[in-house]
């Protein structure tokens, strides 16, 4: 089984879906790491018997140093695939370069809309409602040095209704994420994708 490391900053509902659908079936989640001591995701890991580590940003001299410590931690568990499941901290090249096409992020909008610096979590859904778009959604993509700019693996749309609020859209998008992320991670574990530059396709069988 592919060894998976998951990074979380908050509730970890996407991580829970990976525990339920992927863990010990298609891959093994060997560690969950958070930059936030109070992240409920850490509790979800412990409950599932997965090593859960709080890596304190205050004990690092800066982003690069933090990401270096993160890299060493992931390597110590033999991680082969990194999943950012609601991870809100900057990833720097020293970590990204160690996992080429092996680090996946889920973003709560249809990239390349509402993404990049400043667009995370609830900020995204606020911006979607303020802009008045009629469609939003979720994107799963490989992580490169361009924030939210790596090759897109899968997307799913969500319609924005006239009476939607940022909160109601968040709920609708999360429901889509909960299907999309496990499906993508399963396919990666089964080696079903090929990547050509920024184009990701399912392999012909
Ligand atoms: C999810 O909506 C995810 O797409 C988003 O944070 C939420 C985490 O929920 N991620 C980002 O905004 C990353 N830029 P969860 O902790 O319940 O999985």
UniProtKB/TrEMBL annotation:
NCBIfam families: PurN. The keyword Transferase applies. The keyword Transferase applies. One of its GO terms (biological process) is 'de novo' IMP biosynthetic process. The active site is at residue 107. It is an enzyme of class 2 (transferase). SUPFAM superfamilies: Formyltransferase. This is Phosphoribosylglycinamide formyltransferase. N(1)-(5-phospho-beta-D-ribosyl)glycinamide binds at residues 12-14. Pfam families: Formyl_trans_N. Keywords: Purine biosynthesis, Transferase. Pathway: Purine metabolism; IMP biosynthesis via de novo pathway; N(2)-formyl-N(1)-(5-phospho-D-ribosyl)glycinamide from N(1)-(5-phospho-D-ribosyl)glycinamide (10-formyl THF route): step 1/1.
